[in-house]
Amino acid sequence: MNDFRAPNTVAHFAINADDVERGRSFYEAVFGWNVRPWGPPGFFTVSYAGDDRIVGAIQGRRSLIEGEKTMGFECTIAVENLEKTLAAVRAAGGQVVMEPAVIPTVGTLAFVADGVGNVVGVMQYEA
């Protein structure tokens, strides 16, 4: 399957930044990425040069776990059934750190902790 949002694959990344404009300028200059404003203020989508598919975002730094700033790249894995995935997370000893939230025209997103120090997004994309 050539769908870049195939189930159980990393489908999206986010770069969290204290200075979003500086981050935007850096990734545009170094990698030639297309960074465009979308949605709330301070949120930008990322697509690669020559490809209009949105693969990532640059956004204001946030805390998905209270008191811990999100550092580095934040990854989101595409899933076929979000509720089943969240049940599997809990059964495997992980925890849901952000309950499902609908992103209009995109899908439903939740964040989970894996039990070994990592937080990852899980997204059931709209068709």
Order of helices and strands: EHEEEEHEEE
Cα gyration radius (Å):
15 Å
Characterize the quaternary organization of these chains.
single chain
**Shape estimate:** globular
Major beta sheet summary: 8 strands, mixed
Strand content: 35-45%
Tell me how many strands there are: 8
Which structural class should the secondary elements be placed in? Answer: alpha+beta
Helix content: 10-25%
Number of helices: 2
The overall average pLDDT, rounded, is 88
> Are there runs of 5+ residues with pLDDT below 50, and where?
none
Neighbour order of strands in the largest sheet: 2-3-4-1-5-8-7-6
The N- to C-terminal Cα distance equals 15 Å
Provide an overview of this structure.
The protein is an alpha+beta fold and 127 residues long. It contains two helices and eight strands; from the N terminus they run βαββββαβββ. The chain has helices at 20-31, 82-91, and strands at 10-17, 34-37, 44-47, 56-60, 73-78, 95-103, 107-113, 119-125. It has an eight-stranded mixed β-sheet with strand order 2-3-4-1-5-8-7-6, with helices on one face. The longest helix has 12 residues, at 20-31. The protein is globular. It starts with 9 loop residues before the first strand and ends with a strand. The model has no long low-confidence stretch (mean pLDDT 88).
